Structure prediction request, 114 residues.
Amino acid sequence: QVQVVESGGGLVQPGGSLRLSCAASGSVVAISLMGWYRQAPGKERELVATMTSSGRTNYENSVKGRFTISRDNAKNTVYLQMNSLKPEDTGVYYCYYYWLRSYWGQGTQVTVSS
Prediction:
């Protein structure tokens, strides 16, 4: 069993920045996939970014060049640095961990508004 806990959300003005953190604990493995999804009100959950333990990344097109995912394998932690935030980035951000099955964090709210 794996526990996934994220933090770092909040209210920010357009153009601002936030840094999300997510730590996985329990029966974690080094080859797991970790990343971030988000869900805006009235919309389906969508992928934001993922990263393998070896450093391969995948980004949603709308966040390329603005968001950066990073990972500290020793701490079983993944981060999402979000710059140049836009109102359309608003939503609940969920940390994602995959090995044999999917595990999800509880979600952290990100609101971008002036």
Q: What stands out?
A: The chain is about 0% helix and 55% strand. The chain has a mean pLDDT of 95.
